[in-house]
Amino acid sequence: FKSAGKRFRDFKIITLFFFFLSIRSLNMTVALKLLIYMDYNATTPMEPEVIQIISEALHEAWGNPSSNYITGVTAKAIIHQSRQSVARMVGGKAEDIVFTSGGTEANNLVLHTAVEHFRKSRGAEEHGEGHQNGRAGLPHIITSDVEHDSIRLTAKHLQAAGKADVTCVPVSKVTARVEVEDIVAAVRPNTCLVSVMLANNETGVVMPIPEICQRVKSLNKQHERLRILLHTDAAQALGKVPVDVQELGVDYLTIVGHKFYAPRTGALYVNGPGTTTPLYPMLFGGGQERNFRPGTENTPMIAGLGKAAELVTANLSSYQSHMLIIKAYLEERLQDVFRDKIRFNSHYPGSDVLPNTCNVSILGPALQGWRVLSNCRRLLASVGAACHSASGHRPSHILLSCGVPTEVAANALRLSVGRGTTKEDVDAVVEDLRETVELLEQMN
Ligand SMILES: Cc1ncc(COP(=O)(O)O)c(C=O)c1O
């Protein structure tokens, strides 16, 4: 009888535990529904079709793609199809795609390759295979002062280690773009790489990559000149604006899955890797990715990347026009509510901006971006690049480089909309901001 009582008590405890657990997860679901995500430049959720294909690959294509029996062959076929889809998205050929873990690795691979390219071409000269043109010293890399940390810090590291000289060309304080003439003026005899992002992650400003490539290619035609390699990091542009490697004229282009509703994986486009364009591996191993990036392939994630690329190829214009409409509505509503109390940090004369990116400051002494966001009830956004969120409450160096005054940059909010953002979401976010600003002003 005693043990029956104990069993009943245990049953009650377990029932209560599950009851509280379900209430908690219900609250969580309700809370998540109330929240509005406007940080699509930080990352995007995966599309249902992408999740579906990943799940199928996990079930059916778990074999090692290098194996010759059925599970391996299936996996290899999936990887091949995905390579074609990713290539089609950027206007390249399947053999030009090298899968990587993500954008950081792809960017590192380009800088590493440039240094090796310089070293090898100098070695060839020293062995009498080329012309002597005084190319002693370090390889020289040109980039901009608004690049993602995976370029900026890699370049800085190469410089600190005495492996390269680096010029960070400042963006124009009028257009927030890297100007072509400034890139050309920075070229030296040892310049082996120009790496400029296609669109900035904080301002959304689109850089003049075709013009830069055209000018640098004409320099490359000069007799005895070391070939300057051309790279763009297209992480923020893919899935938002058309991206075509032929039109851009680049040798390398970085592809980052999690910015276009794919999983956390990526690729590097290389125009004829190892033949037309040098590519030197950072890793050595089992020969996968033609030895450019060995390591057993992550088939499910590669499958997801391919599916997300197919969606971009098929639907880009509707994604783009939806985001443009929503962003225009957001800016209009912000203007209506805050009038002369706001400044857009993503509006620059003569510059194109991504269709989804609105960088805005609400002016006032107590309205720093971090303070506003931490008091908002529904809005999920950021003050700048997610990878800088640990840098305290300092204003974004990118906005300062673009000529935004310090006190305005300190109040910046980066609102980036996505494929599914609605006008109702915008109304709710603007109302949330209005209430938050009112509260913070009363508290001040
Ligand atoms: C412009 C840019 N480049 C590169 C990256 C890095 O990509 P990943 O997160 O895949 O390493 C990001 C991601 O935040 C980015 O915004």
From TrEMBL:
Cofactor(s) listed:
pyridoxal 5'-phosphate
EC code(s) of this entry: 4.4.1.16
Task: Name one molecular function that GO assigns to this entry.
Answer: transferase activity
The alphabetized UniProt keywords are: Cytoplasm, Lyase, Pyridoxal phosphate, Transferase
Localisation: Cytoplasm, Cytosol
Q: Does the keyword Lyase apply?
A: yes
Entry coiled-coil feature ranges: none
- Function of the protein: Catalyzes the decomposition of L-selenocysteine to L-alanine and elemental selenium.
Indicate the quaternary assembly.
Homodimer.
Q: What is this protein called?
A: Selenocysteine lyase
Q: Please give the organism.
A: Xiphophorus maculatus (Southern platyfish)
Organism lineage = Eukaryota, Metazoa, Chordata, Craniata, Vertebrata
